[in-house]
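Support reply, case 0932

Customer input (verbatim):
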Amino acid sequence: MKDVWRSVILIAAAVMATTPCPAVAAPRTLNVQVREGCIRAGPSALSAMVARVSYGETLAVLEEQGSWFKVKKQDSDVSGWMPKTSLTPRKVKLSAGEDDAKVSASGGELALAGKGFNSKVESEFKAKNKNLNFAAVDAMEKIKVSTQAMQAFLKDGGLAPQATEPQQ
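Our regenerated output:
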């Protein structure tokens, strides 16, 4: 009987030794692809801002809801929500000429990601549209509205954010 138990134990040990342990998946990370992003308390542009993040910063993804990701800053305990359009799985580099820059975003993608024109695109657009008032556009770009002021405006107007449906 001892030999049977000894055999069972040896077989069990052999199976355990040859069975791979389940790997713990590394948390998914995404990179900020806008010049300056806001991490918000909830999945809404009207939610209070928790922190600011900069272009190229890497964030851990905690959750996904509709068109929003719940993210966590890697250098702190700060977490909150960012729109999916502000994040990319690609490594984002600011230094042109490095090998990493060759496989990251193109100049056109960076212009779009920064929600603005680069100087070349802007010059070409101005040359083709000389009748437009670019000074007015420049003035509007300088207007800053705080989250609190926007929330007060919406409340005074009886407006509320609408929930977004999860995308399939």
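We compared this against your earlier run and they match. Two observations from our side: The beta strands are 29-32, 36-40, 49-54, 58-65, 68-73, 79-83, 87-88. Residues 164-168 have pLDDT under 50 and may be disordered. Please reopen the case if you see a mismatch on your end.
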